User: What shape does this take?
Amino acid sequence: MSPLTEFKAVKAFFIFEKDQGTTLFTRSYERSSTAPDAHLVVAFLTAMFSFAKTSSLSDLKVVDMTDIRFSFIEKNGLIFAVLVSPLVSPLDIQFKLSTIASLFFSDYGNQLSSIDIVDTEMFSDFNDSVDEIFGGETRQMLKSSKNAALFYLKKLVSKEETGARGAMILSFTGDILLEYKMDQPRMAAAIRILNVGTYMTNLRYLVVASESTNLVAYKISEGLLLAVDGHPSFGLEDLVVNVSETVKQIKEIIPH
Amino acid sequence: MVKNEIKHVLKILLLGDGAVGKTSLILRFIENKFKDEYSVSLGVDFLTKTITFIDEDDIKRIVSLQVWDIAGQARHVSYSHLYLKGALGAFYVFDLTRKETLEQIQNRWQLQALKASPNHLGILIGNKADLIKERAISKSQLKKIVDSMHVIEIFETSAKTGRNVNKAFQKLTTEILRVKPKKFL
Assistant: This one.
């Protein structure tokens, strides 16, 4: 399986009215032959919101299917929805959707409130912002810094005595920026657990121990975490010490 | 007697590290409320508040303030210019009990905001002034630092008690209207 960083993570994005299901904006990142039909998707989502409302599931944010996830936020009666790979960090997507929604209302809020029928052509200028947010990394890292950081990840994982089996650098919202030998199921689990990453303002590191892994998440800076998949038979304290050494090295090469 | 009426829309940013109290300051200013429990802001959001006043030329100014709450971690995203651009003013918020939050304003936040919105006016806000015993930056230290910064004034505020919050917003608004050329408004 290809690493997460090579995934085409975002498949399509939609803005539509929650109650009537009127589509205001769509953007597809698939080839036209495989792209989802925007009207069908919006009709499905509108029906789902209607169902959720009658079933008291009013705070619906994510719907997971086998190979796809719908992630949404609601703002002022509009739904901002995205179809993504289920391996993408839900927090990262929520962060991006929230930003897109704010920019949308800032740019078009006045027009939306003053007319009943909206000419959706006027939103075409919004393509660039959406592309930049979904296409851009959540944390800026220079290519040279990435290469150097990857060297330290490899060094940590390659030495058996460190207890590390895989390592990755994540943005604070779980966007994977670098990865080395992370087992994919554990990687996906780690990203979900690390939804707390954004709450790590005052934490230096976090350890999650289970029968299959000792996961250490160490804060490199306010915007970056190093997550390490440690062998469960290896001492936790020693693993933390080894990870902290790698963090020190990475801190020296990545501008904060 | 009021001669005329002019409407303005002003975009103002609140910038600073996580947990310095940006969302609380906005909540205090917009709704005059305060929440004790901390919850992390996710992404960026903006709220609007309209204030009306009559200026020294007897012109009625109706100002719609678009106040942008930028999550502390949002400094790290590669697309930050999208929401930093077009601002006419910024509050640089730090926590008076955490010195490093002031250093980040000098070293990071202000550079980013000036790059995206080079003509904005800045005000420095030292928040959590009610936590007197935990204060980590003295007034004299602060004065020295502020002199080297690109801000027009500093306010010590408390979102909890409301101290100086409205005053700071009022100051930034009137200064923008006074200083900025008409083409910006």
